[in-house]
Structures are given as structure tokens and as C-alpha cells.
Amino acid sequence: VGIARDAGAAGARLTGAGMGGCVVALCTTETVEGVLTAIQERFYAARNRVDDLDDHLFVAEPAAGASVTKM
């Protein structure tokens, strides 16, 4: 959480904890790449875990919610 905030995330929190937890960070389009890079370098690389981070680091964008459509 601290790494994400230091790198420019507007907010971040740790959620879940069963398998070590997960960080959800709220970023602007301008800060998202810097936040991802900081997490890669300051968390994963510092722990020698740099293999295939695509399963661990990803960007999700908001989408329209569910709705009912009459046909």
C-alpha cells in the first residue's frame, strides 16, 4: 500500500489475506504505469520474484454496471 501511494496512487488498501492478501490501488491514467513499475521494482524485485508478473499485476478499468434491456 505504501509503495503504491508513494508512486502516485490516489488511494490503496490491502484486502483479503488468505494467501497473503491483495493490494487494490486507485490510479489515474497518468500515474498507473508509475505505480505498476514501483510495485515491480520495490516489492517483487526486492524479493527476487520477477517471473511472469502478468498474473499478479494488472489494470482494471470501470465499466457500465448490470442493466435490464427490454427486447
Describe the model.
This protein has 71 residues and is of the alpha+beta class. It has a single domain, classed as Alpha-Beta Plaits (2-Layer Sandwich). It contains 2 helices and 2 strands, in the order H-E-E-H. Strands 1-2 form a two-stranded antiparallel sheet. The protein is globular and about 55 Å long. The mean pLDDT is 90.
In terms of topology, how is this protein built?
Layout: H1 2-6, E1 11-15, E2 22-26, H2 32-44
Antiparallel strand pairs: 1-2
**Principal-axis shape:** globular
Name of the CATH first level = Alpha Beta
The string of secondary-structure elements, in order, is: HEEH
Please list the strands of the largest sheet in the order they lie side by side.
Answer: 1-2
* Structural class determined from secondary elements: alpha+beta
> What is the percentage of strand-forming residues?
5-15%
Q: How can the largest sheet be summarized?
A: 2 strands, antiparallel
Task: Extract low-pLDDT stretches.
Answer: none
Summarize it.
With 71 residues, the chain is of the alpha+beta class. Helix content is 25%, strand content 14%. The longest helix is centred in the middle third of the chain and has 13 residues, at 32-44.
Properties at a glance:
2 helices, 71 residues, Alpha-Beta Plaits, alpha+beta, 25% helix
